[in-house]
Amino acid sequence: MSSQSFFNHLDLHYLYIENKRWLSSWFQRHLTCVYQSEDLTQNTFIRLLKSNQIIHINETRAFLTTLAKRELYSHWRRKDIEKAYLDALHSLPEAITPSEEDMMIIRSSLEEIDALLNGLSPNVKQAFLLNRLDGLTYKEISKEMGYSIATIERYMRQAFMHCYHAQ
Amino acid sequence: MHNEHQLKLNSDEDIIKQDATVEEKVVDWMVALSSGEINGTLIQEHQKWLDADPAHQQAWQKLQKNLKPASTISASYQSTQYIAASRAALKTPRRRFLKHSMVLIGSGSIAYAANRTLPILEIMADAYTATAERKTIQLSDGSKVMLNARSAIDISFTATERTIKLRKGECIVDVNPDKKRPFIVETKHGNVLARGTRYLVKQGQDRTFAYVLEHHVEVSTNSGQSLQLRSGESTWFDSLTYYGVQINSDAIAAWAEGVLDIRDQTMSEVINTIRPYRKGFIRLPPQLQQLRVYGVFPLNDTDHILKSLAETFPIKLNYYGPWLVVIEPT
Hints:
The complex is a heterodimer.
Chain A: H1 3-30, H2 34-51, H3 60-90, H4 100-117, H5 122-132, H6 138-145, H7 149-165
Helix pairs in contact in A: 1-2, 1-3, 2-3, 5-7, 6-7
Chain B: H1 12-33, H2 40-52, H3 54-66, H4 68-76, H5 80-90, H6 108-116, E1 127-128, E2 135-138, E3 144-147, E4 152-157, E5 162-174, E6 183-186, E7 190-194, E8 198-203, E9 208-214, E10 216-221, E11 226-230, E12 233-237, E13 246-247, E14 259-266, H7 267-274, E15 281-283, E16 292-298, H8 302-312, E17 315-319, E18 324-329
């Protein structure tokens, strides 16, 4: 480990100790569950670690608040997707309820795909998902969505280009 | 398209230009290879392009890696219900937030209501099985289809043809003879056709397996290669070609009775067979994949199967929560 990263970790350690409780109570104001606020606090520090930014001591809390907001948004986004997922499952004639283990994997996969496709138009997303999740051919997608095959190809090209540049 | 290799890199602009060409080309290839209608020439051309430059390889791998999350859902949750629900969930509009405040404007409840009315049913398979579930489906012509776990089929009967489209997984068909209407099991790699017989078809990611339990069938790949298989014979095929003919025992079809009958198969084949019977993942390291396995096990208790394997082989099982088992050498 280089001395540079060692200091960063040490800094982060103090930053964590000093701000953990404050951040957790910040989350609690927006959430009902104590455990969730602790999870989100952890995630926020992980974001901080990943962001690799130099923070000035006098704006620590402002910066942490920005990261915390992002964390809270993605938490809500996860909840929204999960709820929509379960609603969709339950609206099917033969309702099935995935086990908690299944839900764990599904939740994280959905989150990843959602982040991957963020910014694409609904039609492009739809074409992409029909192809990658359902395994439909372009011809089948064209029938399903009511657009020409050339249009579907254009959508797919857009989606792949977007994915290529995704982080 | 012009030849990138002739480009001379003498300024930053050129580098960017060349990069742009590679990325566009990668996307072109992905668009072409995802169409669902590919042929041998295309695959060969693609391979040639990959081999032409390490940068092509690298860019291709980058795109594949980024696309991976989408295959987790389709590979692990092959039930079309899960897939349809995933697709519906991913349509959920993002909430919008007022700047500098936490007030929520986007109305979640409207979004959920819209999701309920999506045409989920239209794209659902006619029949499917969940993890660890098997099902026998009685068809209108008196034929029967037995679905292995995590499998899905569409049924389409016309005046001239009886077609089962195997979307995912594995099935055994017990075909009622009908001289006028051949019975076809269709996979993404090709067709397996019969007039009256019993046979098994299993669709994998890259290849399809066909095995004849009685009489004979005709296998034809998407590229038009065809092959006759008789009782006891099996083959693997992909869109282009088939890979030899093997003689197998009916042990392959033992799952229909809820039994896993293994006679000299590799560990990796055995693990692949029990995967559809387990929620979560099993990870098998490459050095253990070629171990030869014998034994008869009850399919419905995969923990028992794994435990028995750990007792007879130099392996140990590490459970990481209920959804991940990592097999390791001892």
